[in-house]
Q: What sequence folds into this?
């Protein structure tokens, strides 16, 4: 399955084999994107499909293998199905022929564990409508909406879409602002954007592009420059910015030029505030001061990319942490949304900004570490702490909670 590098709402469809999950997807997207067969187990791996949902906008539907799959391969397919829970924002549980038993109850428990909103669709109602006994059994285990459905025509599709809209968290499809509460109309925001080997050829990185758009959406003025032009900007009495946002890699350089009374933060910290568990980041970052020889730190990247000597997560950050602590610390890196190793071996987990994943994907990525009471941080916050400016660059967000 492709990694979750998509900011659109992710909707997972679950159920037993041959319950009609793929048929529902095909009806929703109005094309045959999922294989439909009367043979159980047609869908073997999770399959993603982008679509447009009226009133919500772009979304990603994730079709999964049956939760009642059998054999050794079946067990692996079921595990892949359960892994989907980490990357979705809501779920549809499909049942048919009034089958509601241990498979469905186990899945509902998983939904609850991940705090996932969901609804239940009783499919193939043209062959066998949902019974009162099934509704009673469902109500004893869940209080969610049940939609009696069939895919032989599309007359019931608006009812399903309406029910889906009711469970999709508004925070998913109503995009939050990176700078909400930090700037006002007409303010000047200065963006410091180094261009190094990691920058895509001829383009800017996604956090920079998203920040420029957010500044404009807030009716403010955006000035973008390289760090090499920063001193020239202030020496020539240019307009004073309300806020300076920089790439974390040049924190030390920028901090020495920006006047102390001028609010300063980074792209990574903004994303940490918008997407991550910011309070856990604030509490966990000082762990950097107590790391010891032999400790292990886990670096979590959200994307996969070509590695260079300029790589922030794999090269620069580990080097800076070793220099800051003076300790012999080892680092493991997990890219994309790949499986995380056993966490008990790590003293700290440091997450990238997460610009290419959804908020739920990022929170679920960190949840095991938070639950295990392992200190968590973010690239920008860790770099700020190492440079002794942690309080300064988090102040704008502490003052605007």
A:
């Amino acid at each position: 399955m492709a990694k979750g590098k998509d900011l659109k709402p992710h909707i997972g469809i679950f159920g037993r084999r041959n319950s009609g999950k793929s048929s529902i997807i095909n009806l929703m997207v109005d094309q045959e994107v999922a294989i439909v067969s009367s043979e159980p187990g047609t869908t073997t791996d999770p399959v993603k499909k982008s679509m447009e949902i009226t009133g919500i906008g772009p979304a990603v539907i994730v079709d999964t293998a049956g939760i009642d799959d059998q054999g050794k391969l079946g067990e692996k397919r079921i595990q892949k199905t359960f892994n989907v829970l980490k990357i979705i924002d809501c779920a549809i549980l499909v049942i048919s022929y009034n089958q509601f038993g241990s498979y469905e109850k186990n899945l509902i428990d998983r939904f609850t564990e991940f705090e996932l909103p969901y609804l239940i669709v009783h499919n193939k109602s043209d062959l066998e409508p949902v019974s009162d006994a099934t509704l009673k059994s469902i109500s004893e285990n869940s209080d969610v909406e049940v939609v009696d459905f069939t895919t032989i025509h599309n007359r019931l599709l608006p009812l399903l879409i309406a029910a889906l809209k009711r469970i999709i968290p508004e925070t998913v499809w109503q995009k939050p602002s990176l700078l909400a509460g930090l700037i006002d109309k007409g303010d000047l925001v200065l963006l410091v954007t180094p261009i190094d080997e990691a920058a895509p050829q001829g383009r800017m990185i996604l956090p920079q592009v998203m920040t420029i758009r957010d500044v404009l959406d807030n009716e403010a003025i955006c000035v973008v420059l390289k760090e090499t032009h920063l001193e020239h900007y202030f020496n020539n009495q240019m307009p004073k910015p309300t806020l300076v946002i920089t790439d974390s890699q040049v924190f030390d350089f920028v901090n020495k030029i920006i006047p102390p009374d001028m609010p300063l933060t980074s792209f990574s910290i903004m994303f940490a505030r918008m997407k991550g568990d910011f309070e856990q980041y604030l509490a966990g970052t000082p762990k950097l001061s107590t790391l010891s020889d032999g400790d292990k730190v886990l670096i979590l990247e959200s994307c996969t990319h070509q590695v260079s000597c300029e790589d922030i997560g794999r090269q620069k950050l580990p080097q800076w942490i070793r220099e800051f602590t003076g300790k012999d610390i080892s680092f493991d890196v997990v890219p994309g949304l790949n499986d995380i190793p056993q966490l008990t071996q790590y003293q700290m987990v440091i997450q990238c900004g997460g610009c290419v994943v959804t908020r739920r994907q990022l929170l679920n990525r960190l949840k095991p570490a938070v639950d295990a009471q392992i200190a968590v941080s973010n690239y920008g916050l860790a770099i700020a702490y190492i440079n002794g400016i942690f309080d300064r660059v988090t102040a704008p967000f502490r003052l605007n909670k």
Remarks:
- The chain has three domains: 10-173, 188-270, 277-390.
- The mean pLDDT is 86.
- The domain at 188-270 is CATH 3.40.50.11420 (Rossmann fold).
- The CA atoms of residues 38 and 367 lie 39 Å apart.
